[in-house]
Amino acid sequence: MAERHEKLNVRAFLASAGTARKVVEHRRGGVIFAQGDPCDSVLYVQKGGVKLSVLSTAGREAVVAMLGPGDFFGEGCLSGQRVRTGQATATEPSTILVIDKDQMIRLLHEQPALSDRFIAHILTRSIRIQEDLVDQLFNSTEKRLARTLLLLARHGRGAAAGTIPKITQETLAEMVGTTRARVNVFMNKFKRLGFIDYRHELIVHDTLKAVVAEDDLDDVTAVGRN
């Protein structure tokens, strides 16, 4: 029901008369906006995937979030942000809806359904940021990687198995805060235990949740064999 409600809101949004918006297609690796660009629109992922990252003055990249269909981003303009504080890159061929800031504000006032959907998005993002901080402070690299894979596969929506579009171990390492070598070790372990599969895409099984469970992890190997 939740997904149906979400699609209903977006359909009404797209049908809004007089809305200053455009649909842009991006190839894999294409820059949707760069750090320092003017912040004058809100964006919505219709199809594909988006990586949000921040570049340091030394040119080092830190991945902030990975987004998929149904996600908004670039909403900082609504709170007075003048320039983009990070970069958005398409992780696969993507269709992005770009909405002018002033029109987005008007729509949020005029369309309660869209407003509810957008507020839910903001709250979910806020909770995710808090969880990410706790994850970085208190959890092991293995747990952080497992949680990242589950989030990317959208296991929160109740699926027994989910797929992740092609993603490099370097990107996973940036998201988790470790090295590619460490990611490779744990990915091989997860595959050996049956938590993930490598085919044309990365398939994540819900048994991987055992790794991020709050209980003692002594039985993780046993879970993988069952």
Describe the structure.
It is built from eight helices and eleven strands. By secondary structure, it is an alpha+beta fold. The strands form three sheets. The protein has a four-stranded antiparallel β-sheet with strand order 1-8-3-6. It has a four-stranded antiparallel β-sheet with strand order 2-7-4-5. A three-stranded antiparallel β-sheet has the order 9-11-10. A hairpin with a 3-residue loop joins strand 10 and strand 11. Helix 2 (101-110) packs across helix 3 (112-138) and helix 4 crosses helix 5 (169-176). Residues 1-9, 155-159 and 214-226 have low confidence and may be disordered.
Q: What is the highest CATH level, the class of the largest domain?
A: Mainly Beta
Percent helix, as a range, is: 40-55%
Work out the count of structural domains.
2
> Structural class, judged by helices and strands?
alpha+beta
As a percent range, the share of strand residues is 15-25%
Write down the overall geometry: globular
Beta strand count: 11
The radius of gyration computed from the alpha-carbon positions, rounded to a whole number of angstroms, is 19 Å
State the end-to-end CA separation.
32 Å
Mean pLDDT: 80
The assigned CATH architecture of the largest domain is Sandwich
Sequence stretches where pLDDT stays below 50 over 5 or more residues: 1-9, 155-159, 214-226
Tally of separate helices: 8
Strand order of the largest sheet: 1-8-3-6
User: Which superfamily, in CATH terms, is the homologous superfamily of the largest domain?
Assistant: Jelly Rolls
User: What sequence of helices (H) and strands (E) makes up the elements?
Assistant: HEEEEEEEEHHHEHHEEHH
Taking the sheet with the most strands, its summary is:
4 strands, antiparallel
In CATH terms, what is the fold-level topology of the largest domain?
A: Jelly Rolls
